[in-house]
Write a structure and sequence with these properties.
Layout lengths: L11 H9 L4 H18 L28 H9 L3 H6 L10 H4 L2 E4 L6 H5 L5 H17 L4 E6 L10 H11 L4 E5 L7 E2 L12 E5 L1 E2 L17 E5 L5 H9 L6 E5 L6 E5 L5 E5 L5 E6 L5 E4 L10 E5 L7 E3 L6 E5 L2 E4 L12 H5 L5 H5 L3 E4 L6 H13 L5 E6 L7 H6 L2 H4 L9 E6 L14 H4 L9 H5 L1
Parallel strand pairs: 1-2, 2-3, 3-5, 4-6, 5-7, 7-8, 8-10, 9-11, 10-12, 11-13, 12-14, 13-15, 17-18, 18-19
Antiparallel strand pairs: 15-16
Length: 471
């Protein structure tokens, strides 16, 4: 993860505005700070770090062997340095003077923060303006190409036209990897339409912005090379999301953190392989056409007692990973099968095995499921009924892992005793093992980094959920 980017404090006018609305500015600043912290956890890491160390065994002579390296290799070395260090290489020797200008640029604005500001709780306005000015100077000085721009702590509200100029410059210089986070306040700064003029983009992450209205954009607008898209606390409406998916023919990974004003996500894409959502709020998901979709991961939901989130999956032949589903809040439709929790006046602990039998035959349970990890186990009757149903109807199941929150039970003996009803059932699988383990964290105390887009989109990991069981 990159350097933290603490929030810019409110100005007096904004403070007065929120007080008129009956909101405490300090409480709002604290909330925004927490949200920014969550965003930092899910953003991709910059490709360079100012905290990296370099070690080498130096010979006992004064020969400059580094400068003797081939020019192309020197350019590659410089392109992997933090921007300030890369620019400073110009003073090393005559041969190094033009290397920084000719090497692909990696621009990370948090590298321009002073150590005190980078580690503090807030960024003073003067410090934020200094960072903004430094970014503008680098973009004006370096001729490109720009391999990556990671802009998470620049202050934009005082310079309303500057962001558009930055995006235009990045487009001209062929930026491929762009991470752009608004420094509140305002909370939802309008994104310039210049965003749509970046054909070289392969990865784009946005945070705390209001997405442009796409209705008036030309039909020829597209992101032809975009492979990964992340929207973190971005105000975007359904038609605009549909537009982005339709105009991104190479998109493989879609990540959404907090779906603001998007209550329905309709997935139509020939290329998507992975969709991940954190902090879903009353979000219906319709997988209408996604022949290559392999993973649909809902890391967490923000729900209330009346929440009912519908997940409908049309034929998705490549789908192999689906989770986490909250039976209390989610209704799952796969083909003609509907799995929905009955909300009655009775507590959920009263639900019994008949509840799950009413779901009928579920083809994936009977023919495909091999591993199940059940989290937050408390030994309730409803949990045992569900697990008993799985054990009696999953002949392909080879392992059932049950994870209970830390300190839920007073001893391992007490925890094991809760599973006794499962061993009275007739298991459909003859080679299934059951593992009961205590989780690393108490319920509700899981750190935010456990909800991580990086694991879900790493296709080399066969099971992105399994790490929590092994924590």
């Amino acid at each position: 993860m990159g350097s933290p980017a603490p929030p810019v404090p409110m100005d007096r006018v904004t403070e007065a505005l929120f007080r008129v609305r009956g909101q405490d500015p300090q409480d709002l600043e604290a909330l925004v700070g927490r949200i920014l912290g969550y965003i930092q956890f899910v953003l991709p890491d910059p490709p360079v770090s100012r905290h990296a160390t370099l070690r080498a065994c130096l010979p006992n002579d004064d020969v400059d062997r580094v400068s003797a390296l081939p020019y192309a290799l020197l350019r590659d070395i410089v392109s992997r340095l933090p921007d300030k260090d890369a620019a400073r290489t110009a003073v090393l020797a005559t041969r190094w003077r033009e290397l920084w200008r000719r090497a692909p640029l990696v621009l990370v604005d948090s590298h321009f923060l002073t150590p005190a500001a980078a580690s503090g709780g807030q960024v003073a306005r003067a410090e934020a303006r200094r960072v903004t000015a430094a970014v503008s100077r680098v973009l004006a000085t370096h001729p490109g190409p720009i391999r990556c721009a990671h802009l998470t702590c620049s202050y934009m509200d005082e310079f309303p036209s500057l962001l558009a100029r930055w995006l235009q410059t990045l487009a001209v210089k062929g930026v491929q990897d762009l991470v752009l986070v608004n420094r509140p306040f305002p909370l939802a700064l309008d994104l310039p339409v210049a965003l749509f003029g970046m054909p070289a983009l392969t990865r784009l992450y946005l945070g705390f912005f209001k997405f442009p209205d796409t209705a008036a954009l030309p039909r020829t607008v597209s992101f032809p090379n975009l492979r990964e898209l992340g929207l973190c606390t971005v105000v975007i409406f359904g038609p605009d999301m549909d537009f982005v998916l339709a105009r991104s023919p190479a998109l493989e990974i879609l990540c959404i953190q907090a779906n603001l004003f998007t209550k329905r996500l309709r997935i139509v894409s020939r290329s998507l392989r992975c969709v991940q959502i954190i902090a879903a709020t009353d979000l219906d998901i319709l997988v209408a056409y996604a022949p290559h979709l392999e993973r649909l991961i809902i890391w967490s939901v923000l729900a209330n007692k009346s929440s009912n989130m519908r997940i409908k999956i049309a034929p998705a032949p490549a789908l192999s990973i689906l989770g986490y589903l909250e039976p209390e809040f989610h209704t799952l439709e796969i083909g003609n099968t509907v799995i929905k929790s009955k909300k009655t006046a009775e507590p959920t602990g009263k639900l019994n095995l008949e509840f799950w039998k009413e779901a009928g035959a579920i083809e994936c349970v009977q023919s495909h499921i091999k591993l199940m990890i059940f989290h937050n186990f408390h030994g309730d009757q409803s949990e045992l009924s569900f697990l008993k149903y799985i054990l009696e109807n999953a002949p392909m199941l080879t392992k059932l892992v049950i994870v209970y929150p830390k300190r839920t039970f007073t001893s391992v003996t007490e925890a094991n005793s809760k599973l006794e009803p499962l061993f009275a059932a007739k298991w459909a699988s003859t080679c299934c093992s059951l593992l009961l383990t205590e989780g690393a964290y108490a319920e509700g105390k899981e750190p935010p980094e456990l909800q991580n887009f990086k694991r879900g989109s790493n296709f080399s990991l066969r099971d992105p959920f399994a790490f929590i069981a092994r924590a």
